[in-house]
Known about the structure:
The protein is of the alpha+beta class. The chain contains 2 helices and 10 strands. It has a 9-stranded mixed barrel with strand order 1-2-4-3-6-7-8-9-10. Helix 1 (2-18) runs antiparallel to helix 2. The longest helix has 27 residues, at 147-173.
Amino acid sequence: MKRLIYLSMIAAALFAVQTPGAAKASTLTYSLVLNPLFGLEGGTGSFTIIAPQVGGSGILTQGNGLTAMDFKIDGLDFKLNNSSEVTYFYQGSTLVLTSLAYSGKIGVDQLFAISLDGVGGYSFADGVPGDRTLGNISVSTTPIPTTLPLLATGLGALAMLGWWRRKVAVALAA
């Protein structure tokens, strides 16, 4: 009976890992590198979205699919705010991001805009009059594994460990 339970747990874990990604909500994190073209201030950034349903298009905002956004420029950390948004559409089953909008201010330093439209660029002005940076953005994506397959894999591994320990204990007792 116990053997049947362990086998069913292992089968469930393997099934969960094999389930297609499109059937589950997935979280995608994009990393950005801000390269100055005119001016001195460059930096890095990232944003995280919950992948919208395949076939749609629209705008992701804070609390509506856009879960995190962060830019580091000139020692300052600009975070997700009400002006943050990402627009998207699907080309077949491929998610295409069409724009990223952000505007924020820390003290006298202002990140005027970050945009993915066309080439992708940003504008940053620090507190020094006339000191402005214009640059481009390079984007890369890193999918974060969904939690259900990780949980199923962990439970399957624990079941295998328990089965192996019992098998060794029975062999030693004999």
